[in-house]
Amino acid sequence: MPQDMPAEDLYRFEELLSPAESEVLGRLRDFLSAEVAPHADTWWGRAAFPHHLIPRYAELGIAGLPYPECGGEPASSMLNGFIALEMARVDASMATFYGVHSGLAMGSIARCGSPEQRSRWLPAMGRMEQIGAFALTEPQGGSDVAAGLRTTARREGDTWVLNGAKRWIGNATFADLVVVWARDEETDQVLGFVVEGGNEGFAATRIENKIALRTVENADIVLTDCRVPERDRLQLAEGFRDTAAVLRRTRSGVAWEAIGVMLGAYRIALDHTLERRQFGGPVARFQLVQDLLVRMLGNATSCLGMVTRLAQLEDAGTFRDEHSALAKAYCTTRMRETVGWGRELLAGNGIVLDYSIGRFVADAEALYSYEGTREINTLIVGRAVTGIGAFV
């Protein structure tokens, strides 16, 4: 087993990466260990985002890995997945920040932008000189947003006028570029727009009092006669199916993040049970404790097998909605179960932030809900296997 490979990767999935990919992941692991892990609980407790680390993340050169416009050959889906896993293993908030920027925002431009738009925005975003956000969810529209999108776009010559509201938009309080999805008043089609920071018709207000992903700056957005030039409309976005294509890929990223959360909680629980002494020895020697540890590791390992195959399907071009939907629904459900066992193994200490496990338990609730609830993803898979849509 490579020296820096986590012992919790029992089946050695990481060995599927190439040596060059392993080097990238190793640099990320070292960075997270030195710069994020010691402070993650403090940032979470204070609901403070570490803006000073963005240039350090940029130095790692990972944000642009999926995109040829950022230079070089695009990274494999396996490496992109392991990056998401590794971030979430330390801090799900930072994994979410990264996923919004590199996955949702950059992914929307890569999928739906013209060649000129991709070359205009993606290289700077890949260097993290410009940070992105993705605005789809609305105050009154979550799971039904495909049919119920209320934000509107009206064309006036070479300008589009956007009106509406968005909610739960990660990074939006400080993003330089926000991908906003709106419904064309004339055609009723869902279109994508890149709204630049400082637009006078755009207002983002940070959501306070969260109990999960507290380090992430989620925002309520209000668009009031927000004027966007036609050149900033994503030229290849012609309907919600294009939005869904972006979500298909980022949904698989959430499954990888869920495994990272499981493995992070498992490591905390394992270390604690080896150090905690009761009845004359470490509590790890008790059968019921070992049972929960093995259940935790089993959940994470089985899910890692699922997303490994998912990554292979992505790179083979045979990746479909039901593939990412099943992985997201299943892995986040197992995550919720797994972090609960971890908290149980820490007993009373499990509810104290100083021991970190409580952060993993709380953050798991957000991952369980975002990028499509379990119920919606279940219906996507159900439609694929039965041929019958059961959506309302």
TrEMBL record:
This is Glutaryl-CoA dehydrogenase. It holds the Pfam family Acyl-CoA_dh_1. InterPro entries: ACX4-like, Acyl-CoA_DH_CS, Acyl-CoA_Oxase/DH_mid-dom, Acyl-CoA_Oxase/DH_mid-dom_sf, AcylCo_DH-like_C, AcylCo_DH/oxidase_C, AcylCoA_DH/ox_N, AcylCoA_DH/ox_N_sf. The gene is gcdH. The keyword Iron does not apply. Residues 133-226 form the Acyl-CoA oxidase/dehydrogenase middle domain. Its cofactor is FAD. It comes from Kitasatospora indigofera. Residues 21-129 form the Acyl-CoA dehydrogenase/oxidase N-terminal domain. Belongs to the acyl-CoA dehydrogenase family. GO terms for molecular function: acyl-CoA dehydrogenase activity; flavin adenine dinucleotide binding. Keywords: FAD, Flavoprotein, Oxidoreductase. Residues 238-385 form the Acyl-CoA dehydrogenase/oxidase C-terminal domain. GO terms for biological process: fatty acid beta-oxidation.
